[in-house]
Amino acid sequence: MKRFNVRLLYTYKFIGQCLPIYAFYTLLFVERGIALGEVALLIALWSAFAILFEVPSGILADRWNRRNMLVISSGLQGVCFVIWAFSHNFILFAVGFIFWGLSGAFVSGTEESLIYDNLKSDGFEESFAKVYGKAQFFANTGTIAGIASAGIMASFISIGAISLLSAAICFLNAGIVSHLREKNYYAERQKNESSGFLTTLREAGAFLKGSTVAFVTVLFLVLFANLGSYLDEFDALIINDFRIGSIWVIVILTVRFIFVSLGDIVAPFIQKRTLSIRQIFLINGLACVSLAVFAIIWSGYAILLFGLFSMFTAVTEILLVDTMQSEIREEGRSTVMSFYGAGQNVAMICFSLIYALLSGIFTLQQTYVIISVYGIIGGVSFFLYEKK
Questions:
Q1: Contact in structure between 105 and 77 (CB atoms under 8 Å)
Q2: pTM of the model
Q3: Topology classification of domain 206-388
Q4: Which of 149, 213, 299, 303 is most enclosed, with most CB atoms within 10 A?
């Protein structure tokens, strides 16, 4: 059997995020007559669809074929962008988001599980953090490339055409990921057993209930380690509050993705110097200290501190996902990870509502101070809890 082709994995991750429509899809909605309130509702529906499909898709990935799930995911995302290219009303845009929500659910937990089982098959499961980190790095550089190319394309073609081009990229990526090697220990074991889908669900639930490390890891991932990704939707508001040129929006987005990419690369090196999960919690707390200092200074000149926050939260996410994968034994990996994915989507909706509430009561600067203090308390609390 040939070894797992990590280069092909990295290619798939880069192309899968190199989608120029990412920079313009909200503008496409407005251009086609969708009100801003309806745009917010569409994005909320997107998260709701992802939550609805998350756990069932995780079970399917464990019991069927993870590579094929990724192929279908890329195809479904492409269908979404095709629908959007020709949509002129709320219903069709919502239908597009159903396909995208299903696509995201098919990927969530599936990629990590496919990577881990393939590395385990080759005897290199200890390299998961390195390979997963690099995969995330190529995904983030793909995002940067997609955003940069979108700015150029918008001068020559319509946003609808950009949506169709993005769909073509998705279909191309479906062909690329179809050549990844499939290795699924759980599915192989299930061939000799007669258990059903509910058994897989119960096993995953029992694992999270019975493993303190797994439960605490998922809890911290959902509540604290993903603060950076929860905040990235609001980056433009920071620049607006600074009252500086709109070009700084591109600056802050670029800084975020560059530092997140750096975090993806340095995570395995930090892992070698990390003795326990307690230290991972502390790293995330220190990341929020950087965010707090940025919020106190509240200036474009302190943007590197914001970047450091993004970098170390990315490091935390990779190390904790590695911890989770290492804890799983006979249970379905994708199903276990789907609980994390569902929690993440729920937390994103709640966090957006809390962010809106705080920014309506406090200044934006004060809001970011409050959020950073929340992150610091979380890191310190979990650090002290694990000491017991």
A1: no
A2: 0.87
A3: Growth Hormone; Chain: A; (1.20.1250)
A4: 303
354 Cβ neighbours under 8 A, 6+ residues apart: none
Of 171, 157, 149, nearest in space to 28 by CA: 157
User: Closest Cα partner for 188 from 60, 64, 71, 337?
Assistant: 64
CATH of domain 1-194: 1.20.1250.20
Residue bearing the bigger pLDDT, 275 or 359: 359
pLDDT digits (tens, 9 = 90+) for 301-326: 888 999 999 999 999 999 999 999 99
Given a contact cutoff of 8 angstroms between Cβ atoms, the answer to whether 73 and 24 are in contact is: no
Tokens of 10: 């990295």
Kindly state the tokens that stand for 255: 């800084």
Mean pLDDT calculated for residue range 347-372: 89
Instruction: Return d(Cα 323, Cα 279) in angstroms, integer.
Output: 12
Spatial contact of 336 and 208, defined as CB atoms under 8 Å apart = yes
- Domain ranges across the chain: 1-194, 206-388
Could you tell me the two tokens for 42? 């569409």
Residue 310 and residue 304: Cα distance in Å, rounded?
10
> Phi and psi for 306 in degrees, rounded to 5?
-65, -40
Residue among 92, 72, 82, 71 nearest 165 (CA): 82
104-142: b or e for each residue (b if 16 or more CB lie within 10 Å)? bbbbbbbbbbbbbbbbbbeeebebbbbbbbbbbbbbbbb
What confidence category does residue 387 fall into, taking pLDDT thresholds of 50, 70 and 90?
low
C-alpha 269/C-alpha 285 separation (Å) is 19
Q: In this structure, are residues 331 and 61 in contact, taking their beta carbons and an 8 Å threshold?
A: no
Kindly give, in sequence order, each residue whose CB lies less than 8 Å from that of residue 102, ignoring residues fewer than 6 positions away.
49, 53, 57, 76
pLDDT tens string 13-43: 999 999 988 877 877 887 888 886 787 788 7
